[in-house]
Amino acid sequence: MSWTEFFIVLLTCGLTMLACRVLPLFLLKGKELPERVEQALNFIPPAAFAALVANDLLSPDMFAAGVWEGCIPLLASAVVVLVAFKTKSLLWSAVVGVAVYALLAFIPIG
Questions:
Q1: Residue 93: which of 103, 79, 104, 106 has the closest Cα?
Q2: Would the pTM of this model clear 0.90, i.e. be above it?
């Protein structure tokens, strides 16, 4: 690939990203969205977060090191879900998740 082709691809990608992120802001500025659309848009952040977490949480070889080692992330995530429902805080969910994971990792089972 030549430098010219590279810059054409880079420019095209940049313009596409800019158009997808900026144009909706300008087109929807000052307009009210229907309530159903707002409700649907409220599902985007939790769905994106769940997709990111599920990829690391569930893997084909998660029990290769042992059952307890494979269950540690699942147990920590269950505690995080409880904290998230109770506090509705991403900060507390992250802090508690890291702390519970660390504590469970130090428990020698088997």
A1: 79
A2: no
